[in-house]
Write a structure and sequence with these properties.
Oligomer: single chain
Strand content: 15-25%
CATH topology of one domain: Rossmann fold
Structural class: alpha/beta
Number of helices: 6
Shape: globular
Strand order of the largest sheet: 3-2-1-4-7-11-8
Number of strands: 11
Distance between the termini: 99 Å
Order of helices and strands: HEHEHHEEHEEEHEEEE
Helix content: 25-40%
CATH class of one domain: Alpha Beta
GO molecular function: rRNA (uridine-N3-)-methyltransferase activity
Organism: Lentinus brumalis
Protein name: 25S rRNA (uridine-N(3))-methyltransferase BMT5-like domain-containing protein
GO cellular component, one term: cytoplasm
């Protein structure tokens, strides 16, 4: 009887001890869950604040009113029109005659693909913009009106080989060769001078607990004026999602592959100055149009879900 009582007492004690341990564990788990929820809420709040700050930041305008600008692969010329007909306030005094807008197509092909281009081209010419057709971005030296010219900005928005290749690896290679050819062809047309200086605007003091880094956002950057005219830059805009990210644009510019044949000239090396979000809606009336073969192919739906981003490069100093 005593043994039975002792056994029952021990069982009750163990059961009571386990119950106390379970309560402690439940309390600890609840505290950990509360801490994680609090941390997640704080992170979400910071993320929303950063997103709001980014969305409220003014779009980057990579031009000065004194720039001489060469636009490549203009399609329907709506970006050229936005630049000279509805410019942002900082470009109000940009002379239209400082802008040269080019297209790969002949004028007849261009107006056939993009009926709206007829009116746009007439408007640009009336304002004094130089409009050129049949300009191959990889053979700019073969365009007589460009011979001897120098530009502060050479711009290609959404370059694409437009060959309709379905195999992704071959498609990527086709577009990489296009970009390399353009970077090689455009180099002699860039203004010489000192390397441009990109200034990062001051950011408000961060919360001491914010360990997300202190780099200024890309839309907070601006190019400083320097006493001597800085060297010209190339601006290339792409969707910042696959398959475009697979082209590896920054690497192509900074570390191009060696020539594949003895007669081919090596590609010049560029320095990346910055990259920033490209806001299509900021450029009034601008429409990005894709092409496949001989017909217009819509308004650039490939790569939806990402952002448009512009990379800006200048030539590296020669060793």
């Amino acid at each position: 009887m005593a043994k039975s009582a002792k056994k029952g007492s021990l069982k009750a004690a163990l059961s009571s001890h386990q119950a106390r341990l379970k309560k402690k564990q439940d309390a600890a788990h609840a505290a950990q869950h509360a801490d994680r929820a609090k941390a997640a809420s704080a992170a979400q709040g910071k993320g929303k604040a950063k997103a709001a700050a980014a969305s409220s930041a003014p779009p980057t305008v990579p031009f000065q009113p004194t720039d001489r600008i060469l636009l490549i692969g203009e399609g329907n010329f709506s970006f050229a029109r936005a630049l000279v007909s509805s410019p942002p306030p900082s470009l109000e005094f940009l002379p239209p005659s400082n802008v040269t807008a080019t297209a790969y197509d002949t004028e007849e092909e261009c107006c056939s693909k993009y009926p709206e281009a007829v009116e746009i081209i007439a408007e640009l010419r009336a304002k004094g913009v130089q409009v050129l057709f049949g300009v191959d971005a990889t053979k700019l030296e073969r365009c007589p009106p460009l011979k001897g010219k120098k530009y502060d900005r050479i711009v290609w928005n959404f370059p694409h080989a437009g060959k309709g290749i379905t195999d992704q690896d071959r498609n990527i290679l086709s577009n990489q060769l296009l970009i390399l050819g353009f970077l090689r062809s455009a180099a002699p047309l860039l203004v010489s001078g000192p390397t441009p200086i990109i200034h990062k605007a001051r950011k408000p003091k961060r919360d001491p607990g914010d360990d997300s880094g202190d780099d200024a956002g890309p839309d907070e950057e601006k190019m400083d004026d320097v006493p001597q005219r800085p060297r010209g830059t190339i601006l290339i805009t792409l969707r910042n999602v696959p398959p475009y990210t697979l082209w590896n644009l920054p690497k192509l510019a900074k570390n191009p592959p060696p020539p594949t044949s003895s007669g081919q000239k090596p590609n010049p090396k560029y320095t990346q100055l910055r990259s920033f979000v490209f806001h299509r809606q900021f450029w009034t009336g601008y429409e990005h149009r894709m092409t496949k073969g001989e017909r217009a192919h819509g308004q650039g739906k490939t790569g939806e879900g990402g952002e448009d981003r512009t990379w800006e490069f200048c030539l590296q100093d020669l060793d």
